[in-house]
């Protein structure tokens, strides 16, 4: 087969490459959880990881399957070009999926399927082959607003609109700086992503559990203890989250998220470990450690801690955290 023939002509003129695309095949794959997706939120001593990240990285799993399908298509056609995408390029997968009849974009902006509910990965194959078009799906949300009401940070200014700057998935995965103080309480123990709006969708009553073995949640990622996660060094973090999408945020941002969860846990047994983070090499970690400790420590004890550590700090963002925490 030919994988989008990488000729010098096409590399120099990408418009020619895309002008030859005749069909877009959009596919969905179920990753429905075996258990209550939100159960860990009631266990503040644990970190809650989004359902899609409790198993193998879906990019790797689905891309392999896409290539097999694309290879079969070209073999059947005898010629042609294909290119596969799994959330790896600026492809508008959700509107394309609705146009292909896979489902519709719900009020939470995610795709909803009558057969698979909200738990669905999307992927696409762009090809020079010609296929007959499917009928687009229509909106079946009716008057339901369950997903909008479920959002902990009120990230939906209106139905079908998402303010990513308030979305916990964005804040814990994509955002690289300190997470705004106004969102930290609402984050609770969510250390990677958020499933609240997806889990609230009534169409999930028709959803099936994931049948792909690689999408079955790893036991150690279902209810990981915050005490264990905070004890991980960089090597331990990489080992625990090997082949997991969690790995891509890096150890520093992961610690930032875990420190917020620790601050919301009420678990004073974590204090000795948390104090160590005041000397961490990353300002992102030191700043969040300040916020967490002032939440867990008795006031007088925290004030003494501040006297011993604040004058050692030079980073302006960490100093801001100290200023907020002190009278």
Folded structure, characterized:
It is a single chain. With 327 residues, the protein is mainly α. Among the domains are: 8-34 and 57-127, no CATH class; 225-327, no CATH class. The chain has helices at residues 8-12, 14-19, 58-77, 93-99, 146-150, 168-174, 181-187, 196-199, 226-230, 234-240, 250-265, 271-276, 283-296, 299-309, 316-325; strands at residues 23-30, 48-49, 82-85, 104-105, 111-112, 120-127, 190-192. The strands form 3 sheets. A 3-stranded antiparallel sheet has the order 1-6-3, sandwiched between helices. Helix 11 packs parallel to helix 13 (283-296) and helix 13 runs parallel beside helix 15 (316-325).
Characteristic key phrases:
two-stranded parallel sheet; 15 helices; elongated; single chain; three-stranded antiparallel beta sheet; 327 residues; mainly alpha; disordered N terminus; 7 strands
Task: Set out the fold topology.
Layout: H1 8-12, H2 14-19, E1 23-30, E2 48-49, H3 58-77, E3 82-85, H4 93-99, E4 104-105, E5 111-112, E6 120-127, H5 146-150, H6 168-174, H7 181-187, E7 190-192, H8 196-199, H9 226-230, H10 234-240, H11 250-265, H12 271-276, H13 283-296, H14 299-309, H15 316-325
Parallel strand pairs: 2-7
Antiparallel strand pairs: 1-6, 3-6, 4-5
Structure, briefly:
Helix 11 runs parallel beside helix 13 and helix 13 (283-296) runs parallel beside helix 15. The chain is 40% helix and 9% strand.
- Quaternary structure: single chain
What is the helix/strand order?
HHEEHEHEEEHHHEHHHHHHHH
- Strand-pairing-aware structural class: mainly alpha
| Distance separating the two termini | 68 Å
* Helix amount: 25-40%
Give the uncertain stretches in residue-range form. Answer: 1-14
- Tally of helical runs: 15
Report strand %: 5-15%
Total strand segments:
7
| Computed CA radius of gyration, to the nearest angstrom | 23 Å
Mean pLDDT: 90
Trace the largest sheet across and list its strands.
Answer: 1-6-3
Outline, from the CA principal axes?
elongated
Largest sheet: 3 strands, antiparallel
